[in-house]
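Researcher: Go.
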Amino acid sequence: MSSKPEPFRAIARKAAGAPRHRPSRGDAEAAVRTLIEWAGDDPEREGLKGTPGRVVRSFEEFFRGYDTDPVELLQRTFEETDGYDEMVVLKDIRFESHCEHHMAPIIGKAHVAYLPKNRVVGISKLARLVEVYARRLQIQEKMTVQIASTLSEVLQPKGVGVVIEAAHQCMTTRGVHKPGVSMVTSHMLGAFRDDPSTRREFLALVGAPGSSATGNV
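Model: Structure:
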């Protein structure tokens, strides 16, 4: 007898699971001091004395997405829609994330849409959903799927579409040094995947490249 597929929520929790032992703030600040020394500077000089504390505080802001359950975030929904069944789109949601390979910034915008079936969610929750996943160590492809899959799991709509456009400083400020380059990813579920006209409408509304230029990850 085959086992029931594991829900996305459980998979997401495993992927973003906290380490067995979370280091203390003192441990984190000591690690920053070590990196300063490794870089060739003196962490005790005047300009750097407070840097370990500032870095740790900034990390708390950069990675606060680990403290929020994205599924619980979407639990409050509304069924009084007077029969509204057209596309709901929130476009140009600016976000800042960090590449999990180099911990360099990823800065871009997300476009999120869904076709409601029985209920809708407050639009601020869509922006917060993007924020929760962005405020973690990420790769853009994974973040795109996470946003779409979570929205689909909770709302159970007719379809979900997500497009993300972003610049990655891991390739603009290091490595190949190619400024001005942006990466586009998309993930389509339900009607957005199966119905070409729905997909085209969504891409036209957000001003995204055509479907041939936005790989469905």
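Model: Residues 1-9, 210-217 have pLDDT under 50 and may be disordered.
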